[in-house]
Each structure stands twice: as C-alpha cells, then as structure tokens.
C-alpha cells in the first residue's frame, strides 16, 4: 500500500475478560512497522492506520 501509514497494534487479553488493543506506534511503511515489532520483542500486528482508525475512531484518536 503506497502512501499508507502503518500502526503497530498489540492485543491484550484482560483477566476480567475481553481484549484491549494498544497502539504501540505509527510507521511510514509496513516493513518499518514489522521491524519495530521485532526490535521491541512483541507479538503485535501491523495494520494500515486508516483501517485502525475506522475500527476504533475515538480511542485511538485520543491516544495519538
């Protein structure tokens, strides 16, 4: 995807039930995002930022 930013997102499973997505960073390319996940030693996913914002507009916008 040319021109897209990528979000590094970690999904945390809560002991009380449910999941919470945590935005760890925003990167210029998918490769940069994957490299950051590897560097941080996390099993997180890289998603196009537009898709993440469409899915969680309020929560992620506030965190950014």
UniProtKB/TrEMBL annotation:
Pfam families, per the entry: DUF1482
Protein name: Secreted protein
Organism: Klebsiella pneumoniae
């Amino acid at each position: 995807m040319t021109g897209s930013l990528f979000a590094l997102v970690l999904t945390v499973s809560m002991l009380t039930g449910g999941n919470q997505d945590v935005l760890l960073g925003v990167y210029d390319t998918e490769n940069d995002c994957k490299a950051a996940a590897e560097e941080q030693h996390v099993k997180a996913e890289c998603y196009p930022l537009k898709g993440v914002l469409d899915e969680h507009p309020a929560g992620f916008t506030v965190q950014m």
